[in-house]
Amino acid sequence: MSGIINKVLVVGLGKVGSLVGTLLKRSGFEVSGADARAVENLPFPGQVLEVSDSAALGNALSGCQGVVSCLPYSINLPVARAALEHGVHYFDLTEDVPTTAAILEMASGSRSALAPQCGLAPGFIGIVGADLASRFDSVRSIELKVGALPEHPSGQLGYSFTWSAAGVVNEYLNDCEVIARGERALIPALAEIESVRIGGLELEAFTTSGGLGTMCDTWEGRVETLNYKTMRYPGHCEQIRFFLNDLGMHRDRDEAARILTEACPPVDEDVVYVHAAVEGLIAGKLRRKEFTGQYRPIDIDGAKWRAISWTTACSVAAVVEMVSQGQLPSQGFIKQEEIPLEPFLATTNGSLYLSS
Fold this sequence. Notes:
CATH superfamily of the largest domain: Dihydrodipicolinate Reductase, domain 2
Shape: globular
Number of domains: 2
Number of helices: 12
Helix content: 25-40%
Strand content: 25-35%
Distance between the termini: 35 Å
CATH class of the largest domain: Alpha Beta
CATH topology of the largest domain: Dihydrodipicolinate Reductase, domain 2
Strand order of the largest sheet: 3-2-1-4-5-6-17
Number of strands: 17
């Protein structure tokens, strides 16, 4: 199959999925959408679809060259399998390590591109980190951090669930893949707290699962340190540890997500902080290079979109553009860290990172 994509199916039409479809349509793609429920006021046609119905999913993919799954991480695999079967390029936003491992296993001999983890973290942060690392002759450490936060925090958690609470709980409870002292390892989430300052603002950062994507595979044996941390307002980690561990809410992830959403509902004014730091040798001298980004809500076609929504949606839409334009492979598994930053930012959708 060629990389050229004319028609894209977007599955999962929540805030991010709806925006993904909108961005792809603005970029010149023919877009259709599908969700388990009827979604109105979309700028592209939509249909009701249960992804567990393989025949209906196959029919929805008919005539498409690409599919973007914006579903919860737990139900991405049926879409990936259908894409593989029908030779359709597959993209998703998952941070779930087992889901990505399953897609990687599928990719051997694939007729189409399989590109999971195309969101913010994993996704954009890995592209940025790899770009920084490419400037070194040898790399000692890669440290990546992302925080999606309310602009005006309240309460002791200082947080707002502007995206999937189930996904956040998953990140807070699953072990984290890292490279430490040159060895690949699994360490607990909600650990290794450190203070971070961005633009004079003090935040805390701690380990969470999934943010590195496939980077441990790529960098094993080549670096001493590789890790990913989530940034929050100070005190958040201590409160979340109490809720999940001391109160035993880790035993019921669905209920934990429900309670946290009730306690910290979404807000319109949010901000996304991105920080990447790489250390290594350049011309025989030890150097450190950093990238820092701050992203806030923007208007797209007259509608205001939260920072977490557009930074996630434009990232996957940019990767779709790059596959269609032949800038990325049209077959097999695509790692986020193999996506070059400059062409990514030159796409219609990747350029939104430059205009914010």
